[in-house]
Amino acid sequence: MITYLRHEQINKTKWDACIAASADNMVYALSWFLDVVAPGWQAFVEEQEGAYVTVMPLPGILKMGFPYLSQPYHTHQLGMFTTARSSERVREQLLELTVKRYKFIHSYRFNMSDTASLEQLQDKYELVARYTRYLKLNKPYKELYKNYTRDRKMNLKRAQRANLRMFGSDDIEPLIQHFKKHIEHKVVGGVSEYTYQMLRDLYRVMQERGVAQLIYTTAGGEVNAGCLFFKYNNVISYAFNSADSEGRAANGRTLVLDEIIRQHAGTDYTLDFESPMIEQIEHFYASFGAHRVKYFALRHNALPLYVRVIRNIRMKVYRTFFASGVAEEV
Fold first, then answer.
1. At 97, which CATH number?
2. Which of 124, 159, 190 is the last residue of a domain?
3. Distance CA 19, CA 25 (A)
């Protein structure tokens, strides 16, 4: 039987044990990660003999008086986490319960282990196909490098000739300030200080657990690019980055990504580029030899008509004034 649990009812020891036993054991679904990015998160839980065997995190809030579900910032995927003991048709049951509970669902993203089941449910629910880019690092660096495109190899050589200094750091503040200065104005709706503070808090927790890696590039002493990675369960997630015009021209992020690939070549790690649905950026990630991987996002709108009209007007205003495109090195 599947039960809805409020935050205070969730046994986090049982929760994390279920995530660890699931097919898609990912850092985003662990209780301590969710506590930072979605304080007060709730869940659907299937329990058998005192153990959680299926879980689905629900970062839900009340908005305009209606229950609202969306993907938290800094969280690439969530979804349904099943174990060998999960009941049959549990994913379909969870979807049904989710759309009944939440009047509005904005792009709640499922993990890759959910994909095959969700393929069969597209006629019943508004499931939108999305893609990320994966690069398996289980080959020697020379073989991985061979799969870079001609342009990527050329830009890597340019980066190496640009006399960039690349260094690891424990200080995320330069990355945040760099993003504020060079990227924030391109983000529709802007970025709140709360979101930046969440990233600071998340980085601190990830550091304490030894699963964060932060790399900067500089030229002449000033940071021109920075990349943050999360490393958990043999997956390296390209979690956050920033580059100014100088960093893009010098291919700073190309240099950093190549270094990550070089460091972990010949291991069981997979680099997840967390590719957004922007053609230019996806092309950039593909140039490292990364292949496309499909997952789904759930949308649902059962809001009253007057609320839908207000929301549609707001979205049109955003789109009108949105300066599209966060440039990547090409």
1. 3.40.630
2. 124
3. 5
Percent of the chain exceeding pLDDT 90 equals 75
Of 287 and 66, which is predicted with more confidence?
287
Asked whether 229 and 221 are in contact (CB, 8 A), the reply is no
8-12 long-range contacts (CB < 8 A, ≥24 apart) are 10/42, 10/43, 10/45, 11/52
DSSP summary character for residue 211 = -
> Which strands sit side by side in the sheet containing 66-70, from one edge to the other?
60-63, 66-70, 104-109, 291-301, 126-136, 270-272, 235-243, 222-232, 212-219, 165-169
In terms of domains, do 144 and 270 share one? yes
Distance between CA atoms of residues 289 and 276, nearest Å: 17
Residue 290 has a CB neighbour count (10 Å cut-off) of: 23
> Can you give the pLDDT at residue 7?
97
Please state the separation of Cα 317 from the chain's center in Å: 26
Tokens linked to 313: 């007007």
- Nearest CA among 144, 164, 162, 163 for reference residue 264: 144
Average pLDDT, the chain: 90
**CA dist., res. 13 & res. 35, Å (int):** 13
Place of tokens 């990364």: 290
Q: Which domain holds residue 18?
A: 2-124
Cβ neighbours around 97 below 10 Å, total = 16
- Domains held by the chain: number: 2
Q: Are residues 149 and 102 in the same domain?
A: no
Asked whether the beta carbons of 78 and 57 are under 8 A apart, the reply is: yes
What pLDDT does 314 receive? 59
What integer pLDDT is reported at residue 245 of this predicted model?
87
Q: Give pLDDT tens digits for 101-141.
A: 999 998 999 999 999 999 999 999 999 999 999 999 999 99
> What is the CB-side half-sphere exposure of residue 196 using CA atoms within 13 A?
16
| Contact call for residues 131 and 186 (beta carbons, < 8 A) | no
**308 lies in a domain?**
no
Distance in angstroms (rounded) separating the CA atoms of residues 284 and 257: 11
